[in-house]
Amino acid sequence: MDIKEIQEEIIDEFSMFEDWEERYQYVIDLGKSLPLISEQYKTDDYIIKGCQSKVWLHAEQQNGNVIFTADSDAILTKGLIAIMIRVFSGQNPQDILQADTDFIDEIGLKEHLSPTRANGLVSMIKQIKMYALAFSAKN
């Protein structure tokens, strides 16, 4: 599935919920299904700067695609990074770099997050794109 299709799928999933309490719970549940990052990457080198909570993000390239793993010490933030990984992991660097993130606005996520969490979300996206840029330059 390409990035746009995954984003559409997420928009559809969020539209099933009637209120934000249910959506927050869904984000938290998504965090519980996040594939765990290896302990060796839970160091300061992999922390995303700009997040209030600790968020570790690791990326490696397999068969031309970028595979992300992550973790966070906060349940909501863990859900947010789980959404980002679902969208971007397994995609090629160029597609990641060219992808827009309008789906975040479409599901209403930004407007329902505290300013610090919204900034953290922007930092997550920035870090994902930085990894993609590094892999793209290496190729």
Automatic annotation (TrEMBL):
InterPro entries to which the protein is assigned, alphabetical: Fe-S_metab-assoc_dom (IPR003808)
Gene3D superfamilies xrefs: 3.90.1010.10
Superkingdom to which the source organism belongs: Bacteria
Pfam families: SufE
Domain Fe-S metabolism associated: 12-130
TM segment ranges: none
Family of the protein in this entry: Belongs to the SufE family.
Identification of the protein by name: SufE family protein
